């Protein structure tokens, strides 16, 4: 060991060890980029010095309301500037940020208020009715409401609660931020939509979020002053941590309240947006935009997509429009994306079909992670990397949650064997690239054969009339289960069940072909994920 046995005096101290936190990014940006656009939303435009002052006023105002370090402050807000300010201002007073999914029903919101013990909630007038309902259903102490008006979107304050701007007016722009003394301190609380039972409260620490912001800069190859559009909801893994990273590069956050093709094209053309993250469903929206909503632009827009593998058909149509799409993957439990489909030049000249097949892979670990691989969940052994053998995606690294709030049993199960168990089933290619074949619960087992719903969906999405589809298991007396396809048809197109089944049969084994096709508008979560559990209920009752 040599001299390492004698490290006398080589200790951590205030000069050489500072707890990592994304709050540092904005404190630095206020000095480095004081006059640069920080947040833009229609006629709302704030520079970094103004953004920092407003976040400081928020932290100060909350402290004066009695919010103490460790208390929870919740939000029920769309992607508006106040939500960006909350990302910094709430932790800057030592509180824990709890961004709540704005599409939840009152009963679940009540559960989250009770379980997270929110002291204060910042709420948009659009979500006041459901928030009031939720408060009536609560068992514990009701949180104080602060109303965040959005005049330009047509949501003025009701006048029944203290307004956000009034709260800021009470605050001190020179407020001394409460920085974490320990980087393991809790930064945020995010409830993950359980497919069964109550949502679980995922707890983030400052260190994980800081490293997530650093890793994303490397993976997305970001340079100074990106112009970033908030399509990913700020309540979804805290906008995949993107809002926390933008000050590091003096980036501009362009807020998008209503995710429409027109709003996206306008933001790219008028605000010069260079980057955004989005679910594949949003890519679909862009591809199928009406001619009058499209705008021309002369730069490439970099897109991270996650939530489901993007169909090759969608990628083939969106790339020529000026978008460079990279698939990433992660969970609420991992602060957002932790794998990327890292592109190698050797793939550039492959035929389109092969190129898009590679682009649809789940990918490899991002730089802030230690190991992400497919293991046998029973033995915790590596599965063969043959592109065929399924295993469960297992994750280790610094951007993994602390655990589930008030649920040690679920936390222990999630971390069994020293890895986070994702619940996602994947194969691994010889080059180590993972490819999700299914959520464990999305595998359809028909006559003893495993059918990947993702594979069947990929085929149906290639039919020219199909806008979106989702395939789930339908109980069957003979086969146990058969694939049931739910399809949303493009405006102005027609197709019937027989035609789609015949089309699927041309590309799939007989047993994989849907035995039922149902036409309807697919139920979706706020992040654009198709709610398969709803479809399973329908399939069961058919």
From TrEMBL:
Catalytic activity: 3-(methylsulfanyl)propanoate + ATP + CoA = 3-(methylsulfanyl)propanoyl-CoA + AMP + diphosphate
Span of domain AMP-dependent synthetase/ligase: 27-405
Similarity section: Belongs to the ATP-dependent AMP-binding enzyme family.
SUPFAM superfamilies tied to this protein: Acetyl-CoA synthetase-like
Cofactor requirements of the protein: Mg(2+)
Self-association and partners: Homodimer.
EC number: 6.2.1.44
Occurrences of domain AMP-binding enzyme C-terminal (ranges): 455-529
InterPro entries: AMP-bd_C, AMP-bd_C_sf, AMP-binding_CS, AMP-dep_synth/lig_dom, ANL_N_sf
Keywords of this entry: Fatty acid metabolism, Ligase, Lipid metabolism, Magnesium, Metal-binding
Domain of life (superkingdom): Bacteria
Protein name: 3-methylmercaptopropionyl-CoA ligase
Top-level class of the enzyme under EC nomenclature: ligase
Entries under NCBIfam families matching the protein: PRK08162.1 (NF006020)
Lineage: Bacteria, Pseudomonadati, Pseudomonadota, Alphaproteobacteria, Rhodobacterales
Transmembrane stretches, start-end: none
CDD domains: ttLC_FACS_AEE21_like
GO terms, biological process: fatty acid metabolic process
GO MF terms, alphabetically ordered: ligase activity; metal ion binding
């Amino acid at each position: 060991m040599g001299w390492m046995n004698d490290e006398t005096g080589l200790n951590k101290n205030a000069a050489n060890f500072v707890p990592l936190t994304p709050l540092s990014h904005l404190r630095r940006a206020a000095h480095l980029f004081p006059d640069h656009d920080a947040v833009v939303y229609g006629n709302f435009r704030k520079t970094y010095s103004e953004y920092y002052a407003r976040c400081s006023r928020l932290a100060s105002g909350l402290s004066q309301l009695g919010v103490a370090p460790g208390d929870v402050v919740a939000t029920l807000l769309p992607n508006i500037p106040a939500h960006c300010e909350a990302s910094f201002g709430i932790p800057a007073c030592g509180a824990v940020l709890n961004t709540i999914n704005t599409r939840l029903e009152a009963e679940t919101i009540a559960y989250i208020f009770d379980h997270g013990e929110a002291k204060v909630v910042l709420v948009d007038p659009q979500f006041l009715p459901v928030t009031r309902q939720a408060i009536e259903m609560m068992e514990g102490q009701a949180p104080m409401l602060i109303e965040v008006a959005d005049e330009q979107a047509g949501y003025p304050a009701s006048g029944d609660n203290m307004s956000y701007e009034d709260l800021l007016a009470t605050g001190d722009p020179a407020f001394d931020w409460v920085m974490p003394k320990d980087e393991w301190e809790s930064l945020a609380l995010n409830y993950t939509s359980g497919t069964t039972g109550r949502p679980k409260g995922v707890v983030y620490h400052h260190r994980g979020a800081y490293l997530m912001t650093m890793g994303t800069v490397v993976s997305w190859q970001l340079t100074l002053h990106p112009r970033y559009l908030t399509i990913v909801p700020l309540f979804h893994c805290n906008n995949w941590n993107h809002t926390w990273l933008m000050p590091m590069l003096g980036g501009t956050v362009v807020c998008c309240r209503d995710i429409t093709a027109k709003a996206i094209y306008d933001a790219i053309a008028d605000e010069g947006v260079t980057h955004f993250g989005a679910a594949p469903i949003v890519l679909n929206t862009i591809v199928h935009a009406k001619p009058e909503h499209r705008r021309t632009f002369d730069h490439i827009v970099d897109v991270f997509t996650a939530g489901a593998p993007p169909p090759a058909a969608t990628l083939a149509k969106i790339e020529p429009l000026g978008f460079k799409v990279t698939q990433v993957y992660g969970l609420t439990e991992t602060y957002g994306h932790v794998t990327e489909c890292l592109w190698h030049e050797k793939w550039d000249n492959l035929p389109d079909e092969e190129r898009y097949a590679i682009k649809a892979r789940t990918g490899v670990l991002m730089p802030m992670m230690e190991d992400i691989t497919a293991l046998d969940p029973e033995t915790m052994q590596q599965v063969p990397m043959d592109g065929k053998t399924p295993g469960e995606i297992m994750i280790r690294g610094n951007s993994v949650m602390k655990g589930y709030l008030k649920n040690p049993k679920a936390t222990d199960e999630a971390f069994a064997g020293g890895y986070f168990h994702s619940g996602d089933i994947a194969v691994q290619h010889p080059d180590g690239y993972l490819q999700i074949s299914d959520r464990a619960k999305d595998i359809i087992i028909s006559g003893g054969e495993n059918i990947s719903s993702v594979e069947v969906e990929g085929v149906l999405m290639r039919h020219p009339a199909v806008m979106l589809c989702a395939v789930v298991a339908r109980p069957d007396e003979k086969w146990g289960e058969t694939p049931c396809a739910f399809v949303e048809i493009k405006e102005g197109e027609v197709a019937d069940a027989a035609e789609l089944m015949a089309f699927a049969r041309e590309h799939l084994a007989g047993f994989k072909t849907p035995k039922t096709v149902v036409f309807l508008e697919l139920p979706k979560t706020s992040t654009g994920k198709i709610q398969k559990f709803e479809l399973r209920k329908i399939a069961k009752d058919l």
